[in-house]
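[SOLVED] Need 3D model of a two-part complex

Original post:
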Amino acid sequence: MKGILAIYRREMGSYFVSPIAYVVIGAFLVAAGLVFWIILSNVIQYAMMAAARQQGMPQDIDVPGQIIRSFVGFVGTYVLPILTPMLTMGVYAEERKRGTMEMLMTSPISETQIVIGKYLASLSFLCVMLSPTLIYYLIIGMYSDPPLPWRIVWSGYLGLFLLGAVLLAVGAFISSLTENQIIAGVVTFVLFLTLLFIDLSVGNSGTALGESVKYLSILQHYQEFSQGVIDTTNVIFYLSGILLGLFLTLRSLDSMRWRRA
Amino acid sequence: MNAIRKEFTVLAGFVGAAMALSGYIRHTIQDVWGWFNLSLLIVGGVLLLASVILNFKDIAGYFTGRTGKLSANMAILTIAVLGLIAIANYLGYRHHKRFDLTTEGLFSLSDQTKKVLKNLPKEVKVLKFDQQPDQRLADEMAEFGYVTNKISYEYVDPVKRPEIARQYAVKSYGETVVTAGDRTERPSATDEQAMVNAILKVTRDTLKTVCFTEGHEEKSLTEAYSAVESKLKAENYQTKTVNLAQQKEKFVPSECAVLVVAGPKTAFLQPETSMIGQYLDNGGKAMFLIDPDTDPQLNDVLKKWSIELGNDLVLDFSAAGQVFGPAAPIVNNYATHPITENFARGMTVFPQARSVKVLAGGSGVNSTTLLTGSPNSYGETDLKANVEPKYDEGKDTKGPVSVGAVASKNLGENKEARLVVIGDSDFASNQAFRVSRNGDLFMNSVNWLAQDEDLISIRPKLATNRSVTMNAEQQNTFWILVVIFMPLAALGAGAFVWWKRR
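Solution:
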């Protein structure tokens, strides 16, 4: 535990002592704010037009629900797959390049502690980055009638968190394979794109293999969260993704040790 | 430089393996070797081979020596972990639990649906024929599939797989086919209720029988009503003609789920009318299609249901009435009723119809006007050929006249008697059946009449109508806050940290 904490502190320090983290978060907030605002004004306008078109009998539209779904969907589909490779590409590659990896490996801290400590730090960064966007809902909640469906917000953000957690775990593994940050970043990004859109290449075939390949699509499991449905299948899928990523990272560090010996 | 080159060759090996594998998987899924899949396989294979050759020394060294042993250990461990994860996911996929956090339960099936699905007696296949996959239906069927594994869903592009479209006699895009054994059902809607009812219909043990009375010069199922006959067959009903006068037991046969009296020209005999009356009193379901200028002697039966046939001919000399002639009134004003639920402004046409009136004050009977003609229509009572037809106040039936009514009576214990009365039988005959919504009117009536306890009605779940009311100014304030202020705060925190460290 102590070892994990030490690594965690070291990593958080490297994130937040340098101004880079703040620039990344600031840039993310500009993009997220803009997208949220565009979605907000579009959905409000759509609801108004729909009400005007069917006088007397307006169609039921859940405006805040739509906004949550669109925003969480956008962040998960476009923002996280681009941002998380940037976060993870240096995690191990940079240490290897600078030679600080040896230092870590020879320290009394075990590999498991290193992997978990670094992972928890990157998760914390993700949370710090995402949590300010919750303020958006506080604001539109003031104008929402009946009140904002907060449970859908929580389930959407749980999905976002799990998706990000898988991407971070897999990204860390890829970073541990190479000394080159850029290679790690690009390979991670390409892999994420493949994992995100793998279901499109399969289409709707209905065969068992097709279904299994579709099952691997990260996005498939993500959509239901943003609709307010928490399915144990999806949670298990994401938890396995995290476990697999961490396990492979651990094996990769392990092999680093005995390969050198 | 050498190190980077080595990394690239190793990377090429992995990329090549991935490409070749995805090409192969795509092939097995799509069942064709398109140029794309083939080139994926070939390019991937070449990359992999090149990588193996270039790194042959390393690979050979890998499998011999101490590292080889350790690698083997690692490989076994990795495969074991992968296997465990795969098993966990498979189990999670097969047995899962869902938590629907929407306040309306938008993504939960109703208890009735779950009960029906759990007790499905046989395998049901649902197919959607369209140019685009229907994600909503796919989701819904996935939801059904969580309850039972007897339902399978498939999307079929009729252009790509015409043989399947032909097998199920698909005629147009967007058709949904529900099939079990040799029965098929084509629900027009795909909401939960429609799908469950279609599934119930194809899996039901016995087909429902629609009986047509005969012996009074009614419309014949083999001639004027052959379109009706084939449509009923297509929707999984049996048809049968019954001659009430020849029934030994003096009852309408109990197998009749619906009794149709289609345009009799001669009168029913006294015993026959009392049989029909009794049938209805005992929870029977009947449809009376009575043409003008005929008197089948059913008025006593109808009176109990607060419905009266007018002795007239509905005429409409307004612009709307000119489409098919004044004696073929057009109806596009419908009561809110399951029969005319999806008609909206769609029209129905009644060549030669008489008015059907709902009388006030029937006890225990729920009677309503179903079909109302245009405001300019009226019921001409003077049917002599040499008289110029015109509306005579006090003599003729004042418009807008109704040409159809429905009635139902709750008899307790899930039993309900139902009656549909329309002042015309020609609207469903072969010439008119396909005109506008005429066929739907007949089929919906039969469906409504034949509906029993196992066909269910589920209230559609709608999203709560939530609004966010923000005027332009409030939206602008929001913009300033989230696009300018919040990012600036983050940058400010960064600047503070940076400044502190200096």
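Edit: Chain A has a mean pLDDT of 85.
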